[in-house]
Amino acid sequence: MQPKKNQQVSGLVFVDAMYFLSNATAFLTVIWLIPGIVFIETMIWWVLATICVWILIRMNMVPRFVAEFKNNWIILPFLIFSGLSIFWSVYWEISLSRWLILFSTVVAGAYIGLRYDLSEIIKLLSTVGTFILFVSLLLVLLTPDIGIMNYYIIQGAWKGLYWHKNHMGLIASFVNILFLINIVSSLQSSRKNLFLWGLLYIFSLVVMYQADSVAAIITTILLHGGIFILLVLAKFKERIRAIHYYIFIAVAVLSFILLYINASHIFGLFNRNTTLTGRTPMWAHLFSTYINTKPFFGYGFNAFWYLDIHRVAMQKAAGYPDPIVISDNGFIDLLVNTGYIGLSMFLIFYFGLWWRSIKFATKAKTVYDFFPLILMAYTLIANISWSVIFENESFFMFIMISVLFSISRSIPEDRIS
Q1: What sections of 160-278 are H helices per DSSP?
Q2: How sure is the predictor about 33, in pLDDT bands with cuts at 50, 70 and 90?
Q3: In degrees to the nearest 10, what's the CA dihedral of 253, 255, 261, 267?
Q4: 3-state DSSP call for residue 229?
Q5: Are the C-beta atoms of residues 80 and 20 closer than 8 Å to each other?
Q6: pLDDT score of 22
Q7: In the chain, N or C: fewer CB atoms in 10 Å?
Q8: Considering only CA atoms, which of 281, 292, 293 is closest in space to residue 317?
Q9: How far apart are CA 185 and CA 257, in angstroms?
Q10: Where are the alpha helices (DSSP H) in 286-329?
Q11: Distance, CA of 129 to CA of 135 (rounded, Å)
């Protein structure tokens, strides 16, 4: 029994290490733009993916792995197209390296999804999130020159372990939602760890607030509202009729219109404006100057921002004091790198996972079953003003793959053994 338990613990530590490493290139500084770091990251991910395959072979799960890959074909169009973009990339070495990382995260994510259910994935992510928040707090308290932004246009905001306060804030927002899910689960099952999750929940809110990220605050508020609605629907679904859905949709549309009309006042509450801190003019220039030049195929998977000439040109166009390193929108970054064709291929995967998450949520038995839908809502909202899908790290792409395979297990093992 003891060796088996040790194997289980080592397996959990291995998965947590992968989740942590998938976010590591966003730590402290813009190291993901250093080619040597990219190549090292590629080697690390190849080793991790190889270990995942080795474990699957030892557990006789390769037939199941292959079968589930066929069931989850929605990732393949983007995986294939982004790989082909190497042949027209403006920096093919980077595109190749970044594609190999993507391929490795798909393999590793599939491994996690096949071995662990949603509740286990959430617990694993909660462990990683707790570690990140505490390390970030230590950096803020012990080495404020590292943990707190001291930039002439950004003063005093916590960035903790990350290169920018917005990344810190959005990670804290995501971890806060994980803690909220654990709180709800504890309430539903009368577990004794409610107090612990409650403290961690408050702690994550403090970190998020100190990061001074409006995107993180808005994301957190909207996701809390979404979770509340999902819980109400789950509790009263037997009493809900079509008219209730029509009323909800009407209220949602009206609320959106009112928010849009009063956008300037709402942003003013956060000391921001409707340009999203200069993002919309930058996006306009990116479209007119670069995206419209290579609209269909793009500049090569994750290659655009690796050229200094692009970063400096965008800096001058946006009137920003330093070179710009991301477009601050995950979908626009995918568009500039892989064009409209590549973005369309990604959306096959993205909206496919949305659809599967919705279907999975309709049969929810616990709050954990809502996590895929909550995750997709997070990636949609957070990506509006930050690149969280696959630009300077692979954390959320990794999680989405894990979730896709976890909720799509549809082939009994005895049919493919």
Answers
A1: 165-189, 194-211, 214-236, 242-261, 263-269
A2: confident
A3: -130
A4: helix
A5: no
A6: 94
A7: N
A8: 281
A9: 34
A10: 308-318
A11: 10
